[in-house]
């Protein structure tokens, strides 16, 4: 039995300059080549397969994209990765990650 992993991501802007850049833009996360648009300041959850995952975060305007940040993480079965993508004033995303691992004593009861 394989237990799925999950990604919880939140995108926010830090500072006045960054906030003006996001007025007409939407954050985008690309997980393993699949693109998902979401909203600023809201946590979104995605189910992933365990193993190495390439995650790219950027913002998208009507005709352009910017502030690409990419990381590769190795996700364990049943693990939740919390990623906070902060758009800095210089137009770059900084990524901060925290992991929540499933308790191995309850792993056999996972669905």
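Sequence proposed for the structure above (111 residues):
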């Amino acid at each position: 039995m394989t237990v799925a992993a999950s990604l919880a991501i939140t995108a926010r802007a830090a500072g006045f300059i960054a906030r003006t850049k996001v007025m007409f833009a939407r954050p985008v996360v690309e997980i393993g080549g699949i693109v998902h648009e979401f909203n600023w300041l809201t946590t979104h959850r995605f189910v992933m397969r365990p193993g190495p995952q390439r995650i790219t975060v950027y913002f998208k305007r009507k005709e352009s994209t910017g502030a690409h940040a990419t990381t590769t993480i190795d996700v364990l079965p049943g693990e939740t990765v919390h990623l906070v993508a902060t758009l800095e004033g210089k137009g770059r995303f900084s990524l901060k990650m925290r992991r929540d691992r499933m308790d191995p004593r309850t792993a056999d009861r996972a669905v």
